[in-house]
Design a protein that fits this description.
The first copy, chain A, has 2 domains: 149 residues, 3-Layer(aba) Sandwich (Rossmann fold); 111 residues, Rossmann fold. The first copy, chain A, is 46% helix and 16% strand. Chain A contains 11 helices and 10 strands. Chains A, B: This is Glutamate racemase.
């Protein structure tokens, strides 16, 4: 029994879809969320830069006395997970491995599609993890750079988003893949559009949900769950720049009135 | 006669449209371009942050012995132009004032539309400047957040870009405005789509072109033009992170084979 909070971080708002799944699956746990809004996006930055950013964020989260950390950002997961795991003794998990494991469990024909930002697809993180689990699986990655701006513009159920999705996902229909990993934390918000284009027979893997399940196992294994009921939603949200747009978007994703968002200077950590 | 280069900076690739106009209008001048690709985008960041970034970039450009600086970024222009002008003795100009002046010259009905990123529209920089020149002009701003990602995805002449443009520009047709300022350095690349939606009678102001004219006047006034012919395109390009995507995009905008792009650590300045 451990009442300390769970640290969750992302380059911006996207990781809130992961925080949401954690809050739903583990309602007793408190979440400390950090969104690096001053330095978003991570996708176009180098490994060295992302490792430095991730170290700073872990140091900040440790000052908030977290008991475990979830890297809810595919780029930071790809570039920095191993580095920060070696550097800090606290349990740290990413979103990619739980997503990759589920994809391998779900596929029947071993043709798996992965969609994400340019950075995530170029990093081949999902392909590598999937092929570590099953070297025979064929993984087809496709960058969908417009999905994040479309979601952030609120075009969730929109003909333009559908048209763009149709263009991006055409590649997958040729193969054909039977499983698609939503390899970017924004994508669960347009899951319906993606499902519509791909058809009912394709299984969509949401790594956010798989990560929450993974975190639950980790807390149980380490005997650090919180059994104290957290009915007041004692979650805290931090950003590195301007909280305004973050709050707006967070309310849409989390669907409950939020605590005020605090701004910190992440370069101090 | 002064053979030193002109410094031009932006948060990323967009300012290259300004560099392009400068190279076309002032073919003898050498350009040192800096794109802050590690910290892009500026639009969502605070004034304090943008002033600090701009100071660092001016200090870097001074190490390259520039004779004048153009802030080819609407956000940096809006938040930091006055601050850096006070701090450094070198001539520094932005893109917004030349654009605002041209808009007031061009309008017949004194209803002027301004399009840009959320940051630029919220800053009201064009409205303020236009109303300083002519307090009677009505200025209608409209943020078009998807234009930058659409342009960067290469959807220049595309039905999706046209559909999005139609939605964004509907407001202007109601008023109706007779002049529209392209208040973001990416927008000249989709000028044709915007012109098509707005119709032939609406005058589009390209601040990049107006800024090049303004710079020419400044060089003449200060007697610091370069009369030595620069046939070899001796321009230099610097970025703060990963040059790859920058080079790709720069070739499209500038339309000539570029010098290799160098990466520097801007936090050192």
């Amino acid at each position: 029994m451990d009442t300390r909070p769970i640290g969750v971080f992302d380059s911006g708002v996207g990781g809130l879809t992961v925080a949401k799944e954690i809050m739903a699956l583990l309602p007793n746990e408190k979440v400390i969320y950090f969104g690096d809004t001053a330095r978003v996006p991570y996708g176009s930055k180098s490994k060295t830069t992302i490792v430095r950013y991730s170290q700073q964020i872990v140091r900040f989260l440790l000052t908030e006395d977290v008991k475990a950390i979830v890297i809810a950002c595919n780029t930071a997961n790809s570039y920095a997970l191993e580095e920060v795991k070696e550097m800090f003794s606290i349990p740290i998990i990413g979103v990619a491995l739980p997503g990759a494991e589920m994809a391998v469990n779900a596929t029947q024909n071993y043709k798996i599609g992965v969609i994400g930002t340019e950075g995530t697809i170029k990093s081949e993180i999902y392909s590598k993890l999937i092929n570590q689990i099953n070297p025979g699986a064929e993984v087809i990655g496709k960058a969908c750079p417009l999905f994040v701006p479309l979601v952030e513009e609120g075009l969730i159920n929109d003909s333009v988003t559908e048209e763009i999705a149709r263009r991006y996902l055409d590649d997958f229909k040729q193969k054909p893949v039977d499983t698609v990993v939503l390899g970017c934390t924004h994508y669960p918000l347009i899951e319906d559009v993606i499902q519509k284009i791909m058809g009912d027979k394709v299984y969509l893997v949401n790594p956010a949900f798989e990560t929450a399940k993974n975190l639950k196992d980790l807390l149980i294994k380490n005997n650090i769950e919180n059994s104290e009921i957290n009915t007041n939603h004692h979650h805290y949200f931090y950003v590195s720049d301007r909280a305004e747009k973050f709050e707006e978007f967070a309310k849409i994703i989390l669907n409950y009135p939020m605590m005020p968002v605090k701004q910190i200077n992440i370069e101090d950590y």
